[in-house]
Each structure stands twice: as C-alpha cells, then as structure tokens.
C-alpha cells in the first residue's frame, strides 16, 4: 500500500507563498488520484485540491487562482503551490490517495502545519 509523507509547511505572512510536497513510497502513484486536504482548528477536514493520473485537477473555490496542484510521476511526488496566502488558509494540510475507481481515500500522510499570520 502507498505511504505518504508531506513536507514544506511553515509560518508565513499574508501574501507570501509556500509549496507543499507529498512523497509517495511503496506503490506507484500512477495507480492513484492524489488530493490535498486541510483542517483548521475546530473545523472539519476539507478537500483543497485533487489531481488524477492524467493530470486533471480540481481546486476548491476559495483557493482557485491562488493555489495549484501538480504531480511528478517520475519522482512519485505531488505538490501544492500556495500563493497569496491568507490567514484563513491556516491549518494542517494532509495528502491523501485513492484508487481511480473509488471515492474512499485509503492512505494519508501525517500532515504539515501551515500558519499564515496577519
């Protein structure tokens, strides 16, 4: 089964950028749809972005135009480029993987903290 490890979180100011990486091991990421989720304190986890094997992407409305998801299949890694960050983007960001023909995410990373200050 695929294992996921996020990196690249940190503390930034409003308007700055961060890039999160999610490195996969144990399985080829070509077998999976990959997604980025986030959870703010006191809130439920929400889907931020997904990318299919063929590169089709989805972004939630509040990050469209600011965030971009991409994948490097040769490096078995998926990225989330986050620009023009806002305080409401603060949270723990998780990488997840699911099979193409399933809606259930079967693997999660440990999470990366992103904090955006005023």
Structural class: mainly beta
Helix run count: 0
3D shape = globular
Radius of gyration: 13 Å
Considering the chains and any ligands shown, give keywords for the structure.
7-stranded mixed β-sheet, single chain, 53% strand, 4-stranded antiparallel β-sheet, 118 residues, mainly beta, globular
Quick rundown:
Helices cover about 0% and strands about 55% of the residues.
Secondary structure layout plus pairing:
Elements: E1 3-7, E2 10-13, E3 18-25, E4 32-39, E5 46-51, E6 57-59, E7 67-72, E8 77-82, E9 91-99, E10 107-108, E11 112-117
Parallel strand pairs: 2-11
Antiparallel strand pairs: 1-3, 3-8, 4-5, 4-9, 5-6, 7-8, 9-10, 9-11
How does this model look, in words?
It is a single chain. The chain is built from no helices and eleven strands. It is mostly beta strands and 118 residues long. Strands 2, 4, 5, 6, 9, 10 and 11 form a seven-stranded mixed β-sheet that branches. A hairpin with a 4-residue loop joins strand 7 (67-72) and strand 8 (77-82).
């Amino acid at each position: 089964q695929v294992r996921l490890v996020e990196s690249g979180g940190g503390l930034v100011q409003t308007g700055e950028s961060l890039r999160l990486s999610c490195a996969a091991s144990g399985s080829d990421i070509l077998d999976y749809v990959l997604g980025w989720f986030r959870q703010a304190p006191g809130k439920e986890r929400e889907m931020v972005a997904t990318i299919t094997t063929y590169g089709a992407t989805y972004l939630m409305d509040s990050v469209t135009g600011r965030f971009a998801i991409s994948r490097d299949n040769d490096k078995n890694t998926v990225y989330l480029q986050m620009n023009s960050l806002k305080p409401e983007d603060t949270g723990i960001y998780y990488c997840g993987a699911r099979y193409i023909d399933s809606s259930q995410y079967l693997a999660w990373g440990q999470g990366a903290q992103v904090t955006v200050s005023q």
